[in-house]
Amino acid sequence: MAKQLAHLINDLSFRARLYREKESAKTSGDITQRQALLLEIMGMQEGLGISQINQYYPCVHLSTISATITALLKLGLVKKTKPVNNQRATQVYLTRKGRTALENIQKQQYKLYETITQSLRLTPEQAAFLISILEEGIKSFDNTLSLRMPKKKSDSGGPLLNK
């Protein structure tokens, strides 16, 4: 059963990536997956430094994060500032263009996941069970990747419920 489940998750993931790629041409332009992840992290908490971003994205080396931020800076999606009290530190903020790009990425992701969840036609009980499974999966990934993500507002019962 575990093998079949792994194959099904892989198949769904493959189709989701294809769908996301199709939709990304319409919304996010030429932003790489790593750049999109950094925009999402910066969208969760403003004014992070590179080492703080690395706490949310520990599987990537600081120099890679720094290079990615430089690329985002060149695209006009982020800006860097130095705090008055510590000129050695650098804080990174989304620009208006960066916020728009992030909103487009999030809309694209939501559309993908909404498409998937609506196609499942879950009853409220099935949706609640799936939510609990997904929450456990998220905790497992957080532990495996040593992630310390800020709490997000969840939209429990949103698009998963059959309307």
Written description of the protein model:
This protein has helices at residues 2-27, 33-44, 50-56, 62-74, 96-120, 124-144; strands at residues 78-81, 91-94. The model is unreliable at 153-163 (pLDDT under 50). It has six helices and two strands. With 163 residues, it is mostly helical. The protein has a single domain (27-144), classed as Arc Repressor Mutant, subunit A. The protein is 64% helix and 5% strand. It is elongated, with a radius of gyration of 18 Å.
Name some characteristics of this structure.
163 residues, mainly alpha, Arc Repressor Mutant, subunit A, two-stranded antiparallel ribbon, 2 strands, 5% strand
- Largest sheet, spatial ordering of strands: 1-2
Number of strands: 2
Give the mean pLDDT.
Answer: 81
Q: What structural class do you assign from the helix and strand content?
A: mainly alpha
N- to C-terminal separation? 31 Å
**Count of runs of 4 or more consecutive helical residues:** 6
- Anisotropy-based shape: elongated
How many discrete structural domains? 1
What composes the largest sheet? 2 strands, antiparallel
* Low-confidence runs: 153-163
- Mind telling me the C-alpha Rg? 18 Å
Write down the CATH class: Mainly Alpha
The portion of residues assigned to helices is 55-70%
Strand content: under 5%
Q: Which architecture name does CATH use?
A: Orthogonal Bundle
